[in-house]
């Protein structure tokens, strides 16, 4: 059955190449020969007719593997539907794998035309060059073809994956990768469609399971669905929603901590205290008078920390390192962001304190962007981006915490659990302070939902943060302070 995957209204299991191959093998063994590929080709032909109903001339770019086989079946169906179809076959027919060979024979028998030249009047290109079989960067000849497809301005429907996109990571940098308008993922949804560069190359993502049931426990990762935010019970009061302490905002960076505190309040914390490290530690926030400003020393006390959700590090500067030992030792629930992460990356003693929290039953979430994650991992931001799922998982294991790795397709990883990819959000979030808002929302949501795990809180915060950016006029930039207020809309 065909599904439109985004915008995300439910969770989806994701399968990497190895898991997809295992599912394919299991299904093949129970079905008559060529059944799966026939189903794939038919589903894709239907989608082509639905998304490009007015395209009269269709060019199918088919590679020499089974992805090309899918394309050959699409060509047969579209020709039967009256389209003017030609197939550019970029592979040796004599070396096609069995399913693709069968697809080639039936297409040829049906009179499908073969021509490697892209027609001038093409109204649709079906990209069937490479699927999950492309594990290495695309070879030069095909790379040139992909560049031509990307430059020609004709709408593209990619089969299974935009050709050249790594299915497991979505990391396209420096590679030739098709830029599709639509991608139909077949049999399984692949993680690479949703993180790193995947979104920019996949366009609108569709999914057909080819009538093969999925075992969710075998999934490599989960694409997050909307969080289940609890309605307040009549009897609840501010004590039910907990205290959030925001510690950060060194001299010149007070705004970061203020944003986090405002966001924690907007997300439903019972009370929010803001302990700024750079002065202005009394008085109140004119825009959010409900926030309580206190000297950090008053908040960073074992008894207070032990009852609170603590958001630490936003605009924290180097001075945050002095406050971290107490925070790491005592905070009941802890969200660490920005300079707190940099301080921990630079100080093994702080790192040991963080890693020791899990054994004491104290949950923590770290919210690095790729460079902060790289500092904690001792690698580079490019390495992190090359495999975001792996980087987040490694970091979660090494620190015994939940990791929320920011960026397109935010990854949430917790030791012993399937990693989660967040599908919401867009580049409107690329403005200073939006990460502080995320940390604050995470703290506020976690505080207000006493029964949520660190993973649930992190996934909910990321999902709502992204959804907030998807609402409103998409042509306008989104300032972080406006983002704080957009949470209300995202929650509706
Ligand atoms: N079987 C089934 O029932 C089903 C299969 N399904 C479909 O099969 C797809 C997987 O098919 P697959 O395993 O044949 O791999 P595929 O993506 O076509 O790539 C192999 C081809 O690419 C070439 N090639 C490889 N690397 C390259 C590079 N770097 N640069 C350039 N070329 C490169 C390689 O050439 P070679 O290296 O062998 O010379 C070979 O020709 C899957 O994504 C889905 O679409 C679905 O219909 C579900 C049912
Ligand atoms: N293109 C994008 N798609 C999805 N989310 C994005 C995108 N660009 C930025 N974001 C989100 O915006 C936030 C930016 O956080 P961060 O890099 O810490 O910025 P800052 O420190 O300025 O607050 C993160 O939550 C990140 O995931
Ligand atoms: K493809």
TrEMBL record:
E.C. no: 4.2.1.136, 5.1.99.6
Reaction catalysed by this enzyme: (6R)-NADHX = (6S)-NADHX; (6S)-NADPHX + ADP = AMP + phosphate + NADPH + H(+); (6R)-NADPHX = (6S)-NADPHX; (6S)-NADHX + ADP = AMP + phosphate + NADH + H(+)
Annotated residues for binding of (6S)-NADPHX: 66-70, 131-137, 160, 256, 315, 369, 436
Keyword Lyase: yes
Keywords: ATP-binding, Isomerase, Lyase, Metal-binding, Multifunctional enzyme, NAD, NADP, Nucleotide-binding, Potassium
Binding annotation for K(+): 67, 127, 163
Domain of life of the native organism: Bacteria
Family annotation (InterPro entries): Carbohydrate_kinase_pred_CS, CARKD, Nnr, Ribokinase-like, YjeF_N_dom, YjeF_N_dom_sf
Cofactor annotation remark: Binds 1 potassium ion per subunit.
A Pfam family matched in the record: Carb_kinase
Names of the cofactor(s): K(+); Mg(2+)
Signal peptide: none
Residues reported to bind AMP: 406-410, 435
YjeF N-terminal domain mapped to chain residues: 20-218
Family matches, as NCBIfam families: yjeF_cterm, yjeF_nterm
Function description: Catalyzes the epimerization of the S- and R-forms of NAD(P)HX, a damaged form of NAD(P)H that is a result of enzymatic or heat-dependent hydration. This is a prerequisite for the S-specific NAD(P)H-hydrate dehydratase to allow the repair of both epimers of NAD(P)HX. Catalyzes the dehydration of the S-form of NAD(P)HX at the expense of ADP, which is converted to AMP. Together with NAD(P)HX epimerase, which catalyzes the epimerization of the S- and R-forms, the enzyme allows the repair of both epimers of NAD(P)HX, a damaged form of NAD(P)H that is a result of enzymatic or heat-dependent hydration.
Family the UniProt entry places it in: Belongs to the NnrE/AIBP family.
Summary of subunit composition and partner proteins: Homotetramer.
HAMAP family associated with the record: NADHX_dehydratase (MF_01965), NADHX_epimerase (MF_01966)
Protein name in UniProt: Bifunctional NAD(P)H-hydrate repair enzyme
Native species: Pseudaquabacterium terrae
């Amino acid at each position: 059955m065909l599904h439109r995957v985004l915008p995300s209204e439910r969770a989806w299991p994701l399968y990497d190449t190895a898991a997809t191959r295992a599912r394919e093998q299991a299904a093949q063994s129970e079905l008559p020969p060529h059944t799966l590929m026939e189903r794939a080709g038919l589903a894709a032909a239907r989608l082509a007719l639905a998304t490009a109903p007015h395209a009269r001339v269709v060019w199918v770019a088919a590679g020499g593997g089974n992805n090309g086989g899918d394309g050959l079946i699409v060509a047969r169906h579209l020709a039967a539907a009256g389209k003017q179809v030609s197939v550019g076959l970029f592979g040796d027919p004599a070396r096609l794998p069995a399913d693709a060979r069968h697809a080639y024979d039936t297409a040829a028998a049906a009179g499908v035309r073969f021509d490697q030249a892209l027609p001038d009047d093409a109204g649709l290109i079906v990209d069937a060059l490479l699927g999950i079989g492309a594990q290495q960067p695309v070879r030069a000849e095909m790379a040139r073809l992909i560049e031509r497809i990307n430059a020609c301005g004709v709408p593209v429907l990619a089969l299974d994956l935009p050709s050249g996109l790594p299915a497991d990571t979505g990391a396209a940098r420096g590679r030739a990768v098709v830029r599709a308008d639509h991608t139909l993922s077949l049999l399984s949804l692949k993680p690479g469609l949703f993180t790193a560069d995947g979104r920019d190359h996949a366009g609108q993502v569709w999914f057909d399971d080819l009538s093969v049931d999925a075992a969710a426990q075998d999934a490599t990762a989960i694409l997050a669905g909307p969080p289940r935010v609890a309605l307040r019970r009549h009897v609840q009061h501010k004590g039910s929603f907990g205290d959030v302490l925001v510690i950060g905002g060194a001299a010149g960076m007070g705004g970061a901590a203020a944003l986090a505190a405002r966001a924690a309040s907007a997300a439903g914390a019972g009370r929010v205290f803001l302990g700024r490290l750079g002065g202005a530690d009394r008085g109140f926030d004119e825009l959010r008078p409900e926030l309580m400003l206190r000297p950090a020393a008053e908040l960073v006390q074992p008894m207070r920390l032990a009852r609170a959700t603590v958001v630490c590090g936003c605009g924290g500067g180097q001075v945050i390192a002095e406050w971290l030992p107490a925070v790491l030792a005592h905070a009941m629930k802890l969200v660490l962001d920005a300079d707190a992460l940099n301080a921990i990356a630079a100080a093994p003693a702080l790192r040991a304190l963080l890693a020791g929290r899990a054994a004491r039953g104290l949950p923590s979430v770290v919210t690095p962007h790729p460079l902060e994650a790289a500092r904690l991992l001792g690698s580079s931001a490019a390495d992190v981006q090359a495999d975001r799922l792996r980087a987040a998982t490694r970091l979660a294991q090494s620190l015994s915490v939940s990791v929320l790795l920011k960026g397109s397709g935010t990854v949430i990883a917790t030791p012993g659990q399937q990693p989660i990819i967040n599908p919401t959000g867009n580049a409107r979030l690329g403005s200073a302070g939006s990460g502080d808002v995320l940390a604050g929302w995470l703290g506020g949501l976690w505080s207000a939902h006493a029964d949520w795990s660190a993973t649930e809180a992190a996934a909910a915060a990321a999902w709502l943060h992204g959804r907030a950016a998807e609402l409103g006029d998409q042509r306008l930039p989104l300032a972080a302070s406006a983002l704080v207020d957009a949470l209300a809309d995202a929650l509706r």
